[in-house]
Specification:
Blueprint: E1 3-8, E2 15-21, E3 24-25, E4 60-63, E5 68-71, E6 74-75, H1 76-82, H2 85-94, H3 100-111, H4 119-125, H5 133-147, H6 157-183, H7 196-205, H8 216-228, H9 236-245, H10 251-262, H11 270-281, H12 287-295, H13 314-330, H14 335-348, H15 350-354, H16 362-371, H17 379-399
Antiparallel strand pairs: 1-2, 2-3, 4-5, 5-6
Helix pairs in contact: 1-8, 2-8, 2-17, 5-6, 5-10, 6-7, 6-17, 7-8, 8-13, 9-10, 9-17, 10-17, 11-16, 13-16
The structure holds coenzyme A (COA).
C-alpha cells in the first residue's frame, strides 16, 4: 500500500489524495487542486529551492544534522584517508570503486588528455594581465566547446565519455595557465610522469628546473582537498550544471555556467572571503569585537554556516588535520590563530549555537591554500578542479534520467495587470 497525503480544500470541502514516495510528494500532483475555475493548478512556492527535490540521485548523500557525507555510499573520511582524487572521481562518475586494471586505464585516459589545444594560448592572451583566474577559467572552459564541436551530441555515450575525460584532465591545465598568465610566467606543458595533483603543481610552479618534483606531503594534501570537494549533491553550481545541461547544451558550456555559479562569494568564493575577513580582523584581540559586529547584523562570519549542514561539516574536520600536515612543511599561517579563536568563541556563543552555525569546508581551506603559495584569486579555481568530476557525474545522471526534461520552474506573477501602451509624450514618468 502506498502512503498518501490527504489534503482538504477548506473552500470546497473537496479532498485530494496525493501519493508519498521516498518522503516526497510530486509537485505536479498538486495541479489537480484548483484555486479557481481557470487555474492552472496549485503550485508550491519555494524560492531558493529550500525544500524541493529536483531529481533522484545515486551519487552523494548528505545528512546535514548528523554531519555525514557519503560518495556512492562511502564515507568521506575513509575516502580522504585511503583513496586518491582520480579514484574518487571514478567512483563518483561510475558508481563503484575501480578494480586495479580499471583504475590504471582510467588514470591513463585522464593523463593523455591533460594537454590543451595550442589555440588556448591565443585565447589566454586576450585577457588583461590581472584578470581573475576564475573568470579566465570559466571563459576558456566555455570556449573549449568550439574546439570540440562533437560534444554537442550529448546523447552519444562514447562522445560523452570522451568529453568527461577531457574536462577532468584539462580543467587543471586551464587553471594552471590562468595562474601563469596572472603571474607573467610561461605556460608549462603537462608532465605525464607525475600524478594528477603532482602534475597540476608542476604546471603551476615549475621554473627552470629540468623536472619539477612536487613535495609529497603537499601533493597528498592537495589530493585530499580535491577528494573533499569532488561532489556535494544539489548545491548552487551543480543545479546550474543540471539546469543548463537539461537544454542539451554541450558539457563545456554547462560546466562554464556551473563554474560561474561557483564564483560567487556565498559558494566557491567563501574561502577567499574567509582570508579577507581574517586579515581585516588582524589579531586575536579584535576577535570579540568582530563577533559582536556580526551578531549585530553587520556582515557574516565567513566560512560558518551551511544550507545543509546543521552540525560540524565533516569536511572541515578533515581539513583541520590536513592543515597541520601542510603547516608542518610550509610553516604556520599566522592567520590560523585568529581562525582558531573565532571558532572557539563562535562555538560557545548562543547566536551561533542556536542558529546551528558551524565551520564549513571553506573556513580552513583558504589558510592551507595560502600556505601552499596560492594567491587568493586561485581559491575558487582550486574548488572547481575537483568539482568538475561531481558536475559531470550529476550532468550525466540528469541526461540518462527518464524523469528529467528541460528545467523550467514556474513563477507567481506579481506585476502589473494588463494595460495599454502609453505614448512617450503622455507618460507621467520624468
Ligand atoms: C552558507 C550560507 C549562505 C547558508 O545560508 P542559509 O542557509 O540561506 O541561511 P540563512 O542566510 O537563512 O541564515 C540563517 C540565520 O543564520 C544567520 N547566519 C547564517 N550564516 C551566518 C554567518 N556565516 N555569520 C553570521 N550569521 C549567519 C543569518 O543571519 C540568519 O539569522 P536570522 O535567522 O537571525 O536572520 C550562510 O550560512 C552564509 O552566508 N555563510 C557564510 C558564507 C560561507 O561560508 N559560504 C560557504 C558555504 S560552503
Amino acid at each position: 500500500m502506498t502512503d498518501t497525503l490527504t489534503i482538504t480544500d477548506n473552500r470546497t470541502g473537496k479532498q485530494y489524495e496525493v501519493p508519498i514516495q521516498d518522503g516526497a510528494i510530486r509537485a505536479t500532483d498538486l495541479r489537480k487542486i484548483k484555486t479557481s475555475g481557470d487555474d492552472f493548478g496549485l503550485m508550491t512556492y519555494d524560492p531558493a529551492y529550500q525544500n524541493t527535490a529536483a531529481c533522484r540521485s545515486r551519487i552523494t548523500y548528505i545528512d546535514g544534522d548528523k554531519g555525514v557525507l557519503l560518495y556512492r555510499g562511502y564515507p568521506i573520511e575513509q575516502l580522504a584517508e585511503q583513496s586518491t582524487f582520480l579514484e574518487t572521481a571514478y567512483l563518483i562518475l561510475f558508481g563503484e570503486l575501480p578494480g586495479a586494471a580499471a583504475l590504471e586505464s582510467w588514470v591513463r585516459e585522464i593523463t593523455v588528455h591533460t594537454m590543451l589545444h595550442e589555440n588556448v594560448k591565443k585565447l589566454m592572451e586576450g585577457f588583461q594581465y590581472d584578470a581573475h583566474p576564475m573568470g579566465i577559467m570559466l571563459s576558456i572552459v566555455g570556449a573549449l566547446s568550439t574546439i570540440y564541436p562533437e560534444a554537442k551530441r550529448v546523447q552519444d555515450d562514447e562522445i560523452r565519455q570522451r568529453q568527461i575525460r577531457r574536462l577532468i584532465a584539462k580543467v587543471p591545465s586551464i587553471a594552471a595557465y590562468a595562474y601563469r598568465h596572472n603571474t607573467g610566467r610561461p605556460y608549462i606543458y603537462p608532465d605525464n610522469s607525475l600524478s594528477f595533483t603532482g602534475n597540476f603543481l608542476n604546471m603551476l610552479f615549475k621554473m627552470t628546473e629540468v623536472q619539477y618534483r612536487p613535495h609529497p606531503i603537499l601533493e597528498r594534501a592537495l589530493d585530499v582537498l580535491f577528494i573533499l570537494h569532488a561532489d556535494h549533491e544539489q548545491n548552487c553550481s551543480t543545479s546550474v550544471m543540471r539546469g543548463i545541461g537539461s537544454s542539451q547544451a554541450d558539457p563545456y558550456s554547462s560546466l562554464a555556467g556551473a563554474a560561474a555559479a561557483l564564483y560567487g562569494p556565498l559558494h566557491g568564493g567563501a574561502n577567499e572571503a574567509v582570508l579577507r575577513m581574517l586579515k581585516e580582523i588582524g589579531s586575536i584581540a579584535h576577535v570579540p569585537e568582530f563577533i559582536k559586529r556580526v551578531k549585530g547584523g553587520d556582515g557574516r562570519l565567513m566560512g560558518f554556516g551551511h544550507r545543509v549542514y546543521k552540525s560540524y561539516d565533516p569536511r572541515a574536520r578533515i581539513i583541520k588535520q590536513t592543515a597541520d600536515q601542510v603547516f608542518g612543511v610550509t610553516g604556520r599561517n599566522p592567520l590560523l590563530d585568529i581562525a582558531l579563536e573565532l571558532e572557539r568563541i563562535a562555538l560557545e556563543d548562543d547566536y551561533f549555537v542556536t542558529r546551528k552555525l558551524y565551520p564549513n569546508v571553506d573556513f580552513y581551506s583558504g589558510l592551507i591554500y595560502q600556505a601552499m603559495g596560492f594567491p587568493n584569486e586561485m581559491f575558487p579555481v582550486l574548488f572547481a578542479i575537483p568539482r568538475t568530476a561531481g558536475w559531470l557525474a550529476q550532468w550525466e545522471e540528469m541526461l540518462l534520467d527518464p524523469d528529467q526534461k528541460i528545467a523550467r520552474p514556474r513563477q507567481i506573477y506579481t506585476g502589473a495587470a494588463p494595460r495599454d501602451y502609453v505614448p512617450r509624450e503622455k507618460r507621467q514618468q520624468p
